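Quick one: structure tokens for this chain, please?
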Amino acid sequence: MNKGVYVALFSIGLAQGLKIPIHFAKNKEWRPELFFQTGGMPSSHSAGVASLTTYIALERGVPTIDFALSLVYGLIVMYDAQGIRRQTGELTLKVNNMDELVSKLRHDESVKFEEKTPKKLKEMLGHQPEEVVGGALLGVLTGTLGHFLFKKR
């Protein structure tokens, strides 16, 4: 694997790992399983693409096609992470709350209802804009550090 891939994967892992203490600081709840989940602060998607883009900019230069491809791809990933995926997560919250509404309707007895055990949908899919920015800043930092660590002496 090339060094840019190592930097991006490290950045993604670091972002995922940071979700645990950040969540603990905000909610006083220790949840190590957040390492394996999407969503939350910081965005590992943003961290990964920002670190790769930064690494390419420092290693190859901004006027290169490598940088242009990485930047455009990164912007699309970050837009998607806070846009479409976030909206999907918010819709999922509403769908998951429908179980409570159906339960209330069932007590009315005017609606025939066949109960099936629903599988709760994952609600934390995308990111708030500040989570994307946090991931991007983490990515720029790790991309810069990666460049200097791998720099030939």
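The mean pLDDT is 82.
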